[in-house]
Amino acid sequence: MASGVILKVYTKEREKEILTDIEKKMGRVGLYLENKLKERLSAPPGKGEHPWKQQGVLRSSIAHKVDKGEKSVIVGTNEKHGGYLEFGTSRMPAYPWLFPTVEKEKGEIKNILGEKIGITRL
C-alpha cells in the first residue's frame, strides 16, 4: 500500500491505567463511607434508631478494603455488635445503621465514581 493510516487500539496499555483509576476511586468511596458511618455512630440516635452506647469500639472498628479483582470496595466492621445492630437478634430488633447510611450517600458515591453503581448487602 502506497499510503494509508494505521489504527491501533491500545487496550493492554490503557487497561492498567483504567483499573488503577477505578481502584483509586473505590478507595475514595471506602474512606468517604468510613467517615459517614463514624459520624452516624457518633451522633445521638433519632427515634427508632440504634440504642446509643457511646464507647467507640464499633465506631473505631469501621474500615474499608478495595477488592481489585472484583473492582469493588467493602466497608464494614469485624465487631459482632455491628451485625447485631444491623440485623437484630432473637432478643433485639434490628437497628440498621450501615446499609441505610450507604443508601443515603448513594448520590455522593456516584459523584466520586462518575458512573453507575450497585450496592449489595453482605
Query: What is the total number of structural domains?
Result: 1
The chain-level structural class is: mainly alpha
| Strand elements, count | 2
Low-confidence stretches: none
Work out the helicity level.
40-55%
> What strand order characterises the main sheet?
1-2
Beta percentage is 5-15%
Radius of gyration, Cα only, in angstroms?
20 Å
Shape designation = elongated
Task: Quickly count the helices.
Answer: 5
Major sheet description: 2 strands, antiparallel
The span between the termini is 58 Å
| Overall pLDDT metric | 81
Order of helices and strands: HHEEHHH
What does this structure look like?
The chain has one domain. A hairpin with a 4-residue loop joins strand 1 (63-67) and strand 2. With 122 residues, it is mainly alpha-helical. Helices cover 49% and strands 8% of the residues. 11% of the residues are buried. The chain has helices spanning 11-42, 57-61, 80-87, 98-104, 106-113, and strands at residues 63-67, 72-76.
